[in-house]
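Dear support,

Our group has been running a series of protein-ligand predictions, and this particular one with biotin is the one our PI (initials K.S.) wants archived with full inputs and outputs. We had some confusion internally about which version of the output was final, so please treat the block below as the authoritative record. The input we submitted was:
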Amino acid sequence: MEFTAERIQQALTPRAARYYERVGSTNEVALEWLKMGAPDGAVVIADEQTSGRGRLGRSWQTPPGAALAVSVILHPRVEFVSQITMLGALAIHDTLLRFGVKDSGIKWPNDVQVNGRKICGVLPEAVWDGDRLLGVVLGLGLNVRVDFSGTELETTAISLEAALGRPVNRLELLAGLLDNVDHWYGLLGRPALFEAWKSRLTTLGQMVVVGEVRGLAERVDETGALWVWDGGELRCILAGDVALGTDEHGH
Ligand code: BTN
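Confirmed final output from the archive:
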């Protein structure tokens, strides 16, 4: 079913929601709304993004009618900010499970993958007034029927409908995803959230390469950092892109 402002409003009431047929980036709109005093849980949704933002300064494609591009405005306590990224990955992962996707997992820190291919991206952006946290925008981009064939992402990305082999109602998907965001938001700061994120990570125990660090992905900590054994030294990684590596024996 196509998105319209009425359908979105109806599916998400009483949540405060703004829908755009086409926008630059839902995160950008949500950041402005947050600064103007948006309520907790307010969402910005777009059918198409023309300058979607990805992690680490990259861009993110949201072609019309083919994906979910959602930004949720949250007001967490400052000590739990680092868990927002875990919350996003968990909410997506739960939604995929509920829709029947098998073989999905979280690649550190927050890429949700199906059979090793990225299906979703998570981009939290915090807004500060000096050292006071105004809030966080949690951006979620989920490929529903994006066609990656013939693109450079052909072998590394996947869409939900391709993974399931059946069509998916994007309104139902959106409502389910936001329910899951609410669920994990209620558990922010609790050990259960960290433990769930940790247990769904596919990265731990693997030989990885992250920037200049190469070695065994040993563990994660409550701040979301990844600890990797590199040349006999345990290195702490706060952000980055993980690639699978080989050990000194080429395995
Ligand atoms: C990544 O690089 O993995 C994160 C991608 C996050 C994309 C989503 S789509 C909705 C929201 N608005 C944006 O501009 N980006 C995020």
